[in-house]
């Protein structure tokens, strides 16, 4: 007997045997056991989470309220640049609520049957974490709305004149969505979450604490002065800080018998062409092209991409956010413009006519 829905058709077996969770792969860095190491570096409790003080306070209130009501957490949307701790916070919330966290990603949910299998496999109080939720298709979004609002899904059994609708009730669960592109979420989907919680870049002090904690867990011999050197070069992002720490560990094991001093950390990061401002080789090439070939701008994104030999999307998504945040360049309607700090970091003198275009 076939089963169809008003959305794409799926089989009854997907309800009896929920499809396995699709976890977003973690980067494997330096060692074959990169996944296990990455997991071990993540704090398991909110009190152990470093940084984001305002967000921690808000999440603490939500946890206390849910415990007092003896109900699952309300649905949450976490947004912000990659590597700031959205997945970590989802697992922390699961630990705080003693709930199982089921992890998947927006691109992994291709059909209505995929989502139905995930939802019918949840237990009371479970957390469904969807990473890159802005990449859900519109069809899947429509199917998700009654699940998060009324905790039900409707399916249509058979086809043609014999078709009939069957409603399946779902246990109360918490949906946590994570996105690096909050602006791409549709308005109806965003409204299902209520308040969106944004993660910001971390301060050097917070990143120093994170590096020291990770060094302890990885058993890296890190001198106190080395942690701030790593923290200053990781672009405000804990994931990058942990990646750089592992590189410093490898460098120190190969060159200094395992002890990482400040000088060792600086030498290791200079080998990666990362300077004290956190700028890498491509950042500097972009700034050099903008200040040199384009005389400070304005210059179009595609023209800049051709001049540095990189894809426009990579410049826009990977390099520009940090350069804009730190005041090196500015986006204008006419194109990208170099700011005085770009000349300063390159050891150049800004032209007398250089002004900031708004």
Oligomer: single chain
What is the mean pLDDT?
80
Task: Enumerate how many helices there are, as a single number.
Answer: 15
Q: How far apart are the termini? A: 63 Å
Number of E strands: 12
Using only CA atoms, what is the Rg?
A: 24 Å
Overall outline: globular
Structural class category: alpha/beta
Unreliable sequence segments: 1-35
Percent range for β-strand residues: 5-15%
Strand order of the largest sheet: 3-4-7-2-8
Order of helices and strands: EHHHEHEHEHEEEHEHEHHEHHHHEEH
Helical content band:
40-55%
Main sheet properties: 5 strands, parallel
Overview of the structural elements:
The chain is built from 15 helices and 12 strands. With 358 residues, the protein is α/β, with parallel strands linked by helices. The protein is globular. The chain starts with a strand and ends in a 13-residue tail after the last helix. The relative contact order is 0.10. The N terminus is likely disordered.
Break the fold down into its secondary structure elements and pairings.
Layout: E1 3-4, H1 13-16, H2 34-41, H3 53-69, E2 76-79, H4 86-96, E3 101-105, H5 112-120, E4 127-131, H6 138-150, E5 152-157, E6 164-169, E7 174-179, H7 187-191, E8 196-198, H8 204-218, E9 221-222, H9 226-232, H10 238-255, E10 259-260, H11 262-271, H12 281-293, H13 301-308, H14 312-325, E11 329-331, E12 336-338, H15 340-345
Helix pairs in contact: 8-9, 8-10, 9-11, 10-11, 12-13
């Amino acid at each position: 007997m076939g089963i169809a829905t008003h959305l794409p058709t799926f089989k009854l077996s997907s309800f009896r045997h929920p499809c396995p969770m699709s976890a977003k792969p973690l980067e494997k860095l330096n060692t074959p056991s990169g996944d296990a190491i990455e997991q071990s570096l993540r704090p398991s409790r909110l009190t152990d989470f470093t940084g984001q003080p305002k967000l921690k306070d808000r999440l603490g209130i939500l946890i206390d309220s849910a415990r007092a009501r003896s109900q699952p957490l309300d649905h949450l949307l976490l947004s912000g640049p990659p590597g700031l701790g959205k997945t970590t916070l989802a697992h922390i919330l699961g630990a705080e609520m003693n709930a199982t966290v089921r992890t998947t990603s927006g691109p992994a949910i291709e059909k209505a049957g995929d989502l139905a299998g995930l939802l019918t496999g949840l237990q009371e109080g479970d957390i469904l974490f969807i990473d890159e939720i802005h990449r859900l298709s519109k069809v899947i979004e429509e199917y998700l709305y009654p699940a998060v609002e009324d905790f039900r899904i409707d399916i249509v059994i058979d086809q043609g004149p014999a078709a009939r609708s069957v409603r399946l009730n779902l246990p109360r669960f918490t949906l946590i969505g994570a996105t690096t592109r909050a602006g791409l979420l549709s308005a109806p989907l965003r409204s299902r979450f209520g308040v969106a919680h944004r993660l910001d870049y971390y301060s050097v002090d917070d990143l120093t604490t994170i590096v020291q904690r990770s060094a302890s867990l990885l058993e890296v011999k890190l001198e106190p002065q080395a942690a701030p050197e790593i923290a200053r070069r990781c672009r405000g992002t804990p994931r990058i800080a942990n990646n750089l720490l592992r590189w410093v560990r490898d460098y120190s094991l190969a060159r200094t018998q395992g002890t990482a001093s400040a000088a060792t950390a600086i030498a290791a990061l200079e080998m990666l062409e990362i300077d004290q401002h956190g700028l890498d080789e491509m950042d500097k090439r972009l700034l050099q092209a903008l200040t040199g070939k384009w005389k400070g701008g304005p210059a179009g994104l595609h023209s800049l991409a051709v001049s540095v030999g990189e894809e426009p999307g990579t410049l826009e998504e990977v390099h520009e956010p940090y350069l804009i945040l730190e005041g090196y360049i500015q986006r204008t309607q006419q194109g990208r413009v170099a700011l005085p700090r770009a000349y300063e970091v390159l050891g150049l003198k800004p032209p007398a006519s250089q002004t900031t275009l708004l």
